[in-house]
Structure to design on (281 residues):
């Protein structure tokens, strides 16, 4: 039985209980963060901390997120993952438990904090070499996708559309532009140039996304942060996704249309090799 963290306590997962007045349960009133750990060390924790701090500030939830670093390491240790080659720690912070009213509780209540740690299972080399497939879906999310909020129903519906289509990923399309995946960021390659949607309120500002852009710079791969029209997505030489529990995954078909030669391309290969070297995988 895994050990989780709930409101300051460490306990067996099946013993964790949440109030029915919890605003995360009633309103999805909270934010979350998922941090990878390689060899027991949190990967790019300062960047993950900055993102959750921005989300908490946007939602006006008063909580010192810096304290979560110790929680994450404790969960890795208590679940025997402090030496695992790859794992991740999920944490969410809500506005807390209070009688159901739309406005913030007045006076404020203590935020609710829940966290758990799990091993990360990277796809086998053989599976990665096959590549992954995706479908496009209309982007019906709210206009603050940059906040890593726990209100993920549009993402859930998008990923279910992928499952129903028998593929691995869904790509949000807004006003004819490919934005990002249902739970990851999106890159396309054309003529050796890497492109990804620019940071805005319509995409999540991915920590892995930024890291991959940095790797591309180190490898001399040109990068453009710009809008990606849907026809350009279909005509790309390569398409791939990035994320904490995605790392780098190439898409070899979108909406049944083959991408490039139908195999993971050279840019994705170079970046994935550099990523694995960087994280010690």
């Amino acid at each position: 039985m895994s050990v989780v963290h709930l409101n300051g306590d460490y306990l067996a997962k099946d013993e964790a209980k949440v109030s029915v007045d919890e605003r995360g349960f009633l309103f999805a009133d909270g934010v979350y963060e998922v941090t990878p750990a390689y060899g027991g060390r949190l990967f790019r924790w300062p960047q993950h901390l900055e993102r959750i701090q921005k989300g908490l500030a946007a939602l006006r939830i008063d909580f010192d997120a810096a304290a979560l670093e110790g929680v994450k390491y404790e969960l890795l240790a208590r679940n025997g993952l402090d030496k695992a080659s790859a794992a991740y720690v999920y944490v969410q912070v809500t506005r807390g438990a209070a009688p159901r009213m739309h406005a913030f509780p007045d006076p404020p209540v203590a935020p609710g904090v829940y966290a758990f740690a799990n091993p990360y299972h990277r796809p086998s080399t053989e599976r990665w070499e096959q590549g992954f497939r995706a479908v496009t879906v209309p982007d019906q999310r709210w206009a603050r996708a940059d906040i890593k909020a726990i209100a993920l129903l549009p993402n859930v519906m998008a990923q279910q559309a992928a499952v129903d289509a028998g593929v691995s990923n869904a790509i949000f399309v807004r006003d004819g532009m490919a934005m990002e995946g249902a739970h990851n960021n999106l890159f396309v390659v054309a003529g050796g140039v890497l492109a990804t949607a620019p940071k805005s309120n319509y995409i999540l500002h991915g920590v892995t996304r930024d890291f991959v852009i940095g790797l591309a710079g180190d490898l001399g791969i040109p990068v453009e942060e710009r809008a990606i029209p849907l026809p350009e997505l279909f005509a790309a030489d390569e398409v791939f996704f990035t994320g904490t529990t995605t790392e780098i995954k190439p898409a070899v078909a979108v909406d049944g249309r083959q991408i490039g030669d139908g195999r993971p391309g050279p840019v994705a290969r170079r970046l994935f090799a550099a990523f694995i070297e960087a994280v010690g995988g």
